[in-house]
Amino acid sequence: MKLLSGGLAMALTKGKLGSFIELRDVRNSELKYGVNDVRGVNTSKQMMPTKADLTTRDLSKFQIVSPEEFVFNHRTSRNGSKFSIAFNDTGKPIICTEDYVVFRISDYGRMFIVPEWLYMYFNRPEFDRFVITNSWGSSTEFYNWEDICDVDMALPPLSVQQKYVDIYNSMLANQRCYERGLEDLKLTIDALLERFKKGTKRIPLGELIIESDERNKDDAIQSVNGVNKDKLFMPSVANGADLTKYKLVRKNQFSCNLMHVGRDVAVPVALNSHDEPIIVSPAYIVFNVKNDSIIPEFLLMWLSRTETDRYAWFMCDTNVRSGMEKKRFFEIDIPVPSIQEQRAIIEIYNALYIRREVNERLKAQIKDLCPILVKGAVEEGERE
Q1: Is 2's pLDDT higher than 50?
Q2: pLDDT tens digits, 335-365
Q3: pLDDT at 52 over 80
Q4: Residue 56: predicted pLDDT
Q5: Averaged over 92-113, what is the pLDDT?
Q6: In this structure, are residues 337 and 196 in contact, taking their beta carbons and an 8 Å threshold?
């Protein structure tokens, strides 16, 4: 390692990560932050609003995560072989459960590490594999503060790190701008749907659909999908499961996970718009529209409304597991306007659907770039 006259590192610096970071344990003892400030950490390396019931939790014991600090869940079991760690780039403090580990780059460490570069380093599949391999425990596996401190680092000069961080940030800014456009489009659709609340015949969902129970009997499909609260299918893990018992979802069929309505405060329902069938858990319900009085995309739009999500969540009170009973789900009233009106709004919805898929691909591409950018920075540092 070499140092510039100002004390900043040049060339490649090698050492344990623990030499450059420090543990934080600042509590929300004065209750400055409330339920709306609570965040969890997901396997996509992002902070997210928590799904947990906080009514009985003492928020004064929660930890404060200040801007440019990191937070991770040291439990690595059942995380789909991914490490849940995030970086607070929101510009404002958030709070998280006391079970999480919070840390930041120390003053000394800032002479060697750009915070966003370290986040890129964590965002690589290689680091996920490293963490899972080095987790320990019997029924529950952990990756603790001492373990992350023991990670060997090869750090390029700050100027090189910053150059690659700037590339990452420019792509991220473009993606987030694109995502904000999606929200505007969704608000337009919500406003149009609002018109159908009055003066339009409403029919219970159960009278508009037919439930399907077709199974993957020949074991032809091996890739399992789940449904998230964003109304999208997503790859899922079914280790050791008998996939012949999984349900088929064909084109223009819906799948819904009623078990997670209470947890997600949303109806996790999705429509398969592709020609190829997919499979989902036997616990999911699969259905399709009964006749041509309602277009599948229009039905999905109504089930995607925030108001529908809130209603479904409220109706979970009768289910001790915070799921929604199928009977209750089938009782949701759906307005059925004319086919012409449905088609008009579907054109806007299709634009939103396509743009959402593009946005997901953009996010995946940015994540895929992290190992390339980190490798490029290290190689450039070796040449300094």
Answers
A1: no
A2: 999 999 999 999 988 888 888 889 888 988 8
A3: no
A4: 87
A5: 97
A6: yes
Class of residue 249 by CB neighbours under 10 A (exposed 0-12, middle 13-18, buried 19+)? buried
Neighbouring C-alpha atoms within 13 Å toward the C-beta of 251: 4
Task: Give the list of residues 6+ apart from residue 77 with CB closer than 8 angstroms, or none.
Answer: 135, 137, 139, 140, 141
In the chain, what are the domain boundaries?
Answer: 2-155, 157-188+341-384, 201-336
For residues 67-85, one letter each, b for 16 or more C-beta atoms within 10 angstroms of the residue's C-beta and e for the rest, the string is eebbbbbbbbeebeebbbb
Give CATH for domain 201-336. Answer: 3.90.220.20
Which secondary structure element, helix H or strand E, spans residue 263, and what is its range? helix 261-264
Query: Are the folds of 2-155 and 201-336 the same?
Result: yes
C-alpha pair distances (Å), 116 with each of 41, 87, 91, 167: 17, 8, 13, 11
Q: What does the pLDDT read at residue 321?
A: 58
How far the first Cα of the chain sits from its last, in Å, is 11
251 and 275 Cβ atoms separated by less than 8 Å: yes
The answer to whether residue 1 scores a pLDDT higher than 50 is no
The C-alpha atoms of residue 364 and residue 165 are separated, in whole angstroms, by: 17
Two structure tokens written together for 325? 């009973």
Residue at token pair 């680092």: 153
Q: Please say if the pLDDT value at position 5 is more than 70.
A: no
SS3 call for 29: coil
Fold classified for 2-155 = Adenine-n6-DNA-methyltransferase TaqI; Chain A, domain 2 (3.90.220)
**Token pair for 383:** 């040449």
Please count the other Cβ atoms lying within 10 Å of the Cβ belonging to residue 325: 14
**E strand residue ranges, 167-242:** 202-204, 209-212, 225-227, 233-235
Distance CA 324, CA 333 (A): 15
